Amino acid sequence: AQSVTQLGSHVSVSEGALVLLRCNYSSSVPPYLFWYVQYPNQGLQLLLKYTTGATLVKGINGFEAEFKKSETSFHLTKPSAHMSDAAEYFCAVSERGFNKFYFGSGTKLNVKP
Amino acid sequence: DTAVSQTPKYLVTQMGNDKSIKCEQNLGHDTMYWYKQDSKKFLKIMFSYNNKELIINETVPNRFSPKSPDKAHLNLHINSLELGDSAVYFCASSQDVGEISKTGELFFGEGSRLTVL
To answer: What is the pLDDT of residues B25-36, one digit of tens each?
Structure first.
């Protein structure tokens, strides 16, 4: 089975600063990779995903993530944090050929004015 | 027009009671899921149905029984509720994109917060 590790359950940045949320997965075969965002009292929304092709993927709200096979990582970044980015972020993987998704434990992003 | 809708949004009940949560998706997706999110925000798959057929059952107690009357609906019935069942339950759906690569991102409902007293 897959496992997903998100380093840091809480990350705090100042408005305008770089956002970096870390995600590592365990798999011998590159899976499909996702980042979801959850705002308070809401369901999860897809930010971006990697399936094949270019390893740097861009998502909504200025976020992007890079798939690094050698590091089994899929870290999420945004050059300049905005107050509205404060939310919980989940990394997820699914095995190729299966509709089964594994989620990390989430990282709560706090943005300070 | 809500893509994945689940009701009720909040549910407070006593231990030992039976309750149901309903989910409907209007996206035409083939696969639907139930996830449980605990107080630490950890998301765990409970069930998955593909075209009304159960394909994933992740060691969930028998007290939990999913029912899929058609591929647009996946309901969750819980018998003899326990304190540990308190959580937010999310319904989700995804679309199979073909035989070679079955991956579609998940579309989530807004969640149903269950509190067992």
So the answer is: 999 988 899 999
